[in-house]
Amino acid sequence: PMVTPNPQRAKDAADFANRSPELLMKLGHMHRQQSDYPMASEYYTRALGVYADIGDRKGKANALKFLANAYLLQDMTDHAFKLYSECLQIWTEIGEKGGRADALWGLAAVHRARYKYSQAFALYSECLEIRTDIGDRPGRCDPLRGLAEIHRLRKEYDQALELYSECLKIRTEIGDRRGRASALWGLAEIRRLRGDYPQAFAFYSECIHIYTDLGHKGRKADALGGLAQTHLARKEYTQAVKSYSECLPIFTDIGDRDAKAIASWGLARAHLMEGRYSRAISLYFNALKLGSINNIGIIQYWRASLARIETKSPQSRNMSSEKLKAL
Q1: What is the reported pTM?
Q2: N or C: lower Cβ tally within 10 Å for the chain?
Q3: What pLDDT is recorded for position 313?
């Protein structure tokens, strides 16, 4: 039998969704899992409004945390900093140590994104101290990974390796596959940077497998990019092309311009090394158009490479000459 549409019932369902902060938060989490951060932000914002209206301070602080994180993942650090600061104030007033640790972690992540590593290190350390004091062993993982990231960025690889390894051990013991993949990615980066390519390859491959199972596109693309860099370093250009070609559409879909530019540059280099000059030129200048590659070393490398291409490939001369003038 046909079901007669009931406009009032549909309106009631829509009203419930709009006034149920828990449901709005779940919808935000779903979109965040899919790397759809703008849509996640929309749902977190709506949940935040409801929590504020009903006077639920804990709910408001939780919504602030996730909304701040969604902004951070979109490189909107000013918004993220403001929201994490408000979140910290609420948890401090309530006296909730776990919530305070969450907010400190968020503020540390903002400082790290702004390249303020000393401030980030101090806040991650304070967060780790709180997690240790309250006996939250799983909660130690996030600040441990944050500190490991700072050490990695400072090229302090021994310290980074130790902290990533501790994080991996905890994540594995508690059965947190997503957290395990995150720790594996950090270990893979360290191994790659140290030239231990077989181990890096193994770690990246496991990351990709886990993130594929979990449906986390953005993190999967990051791991594919690392795998591609490993192939490039090993002069395995065909495999590098395959991995870069797989991660580029994902970076495009989720709107990560910086990652897309870096992957385009890597793919261009792989094509260059295999003699596909026209393709390499197109990809390199596409990367430049994204406005994310400002490393003078990369630009100088390509100026020299394009000049060599002109002598090796007459058919590419017309294509590159005008673009070289623009560099």
Answers
A1: 0.80
A2: N
A3: 59
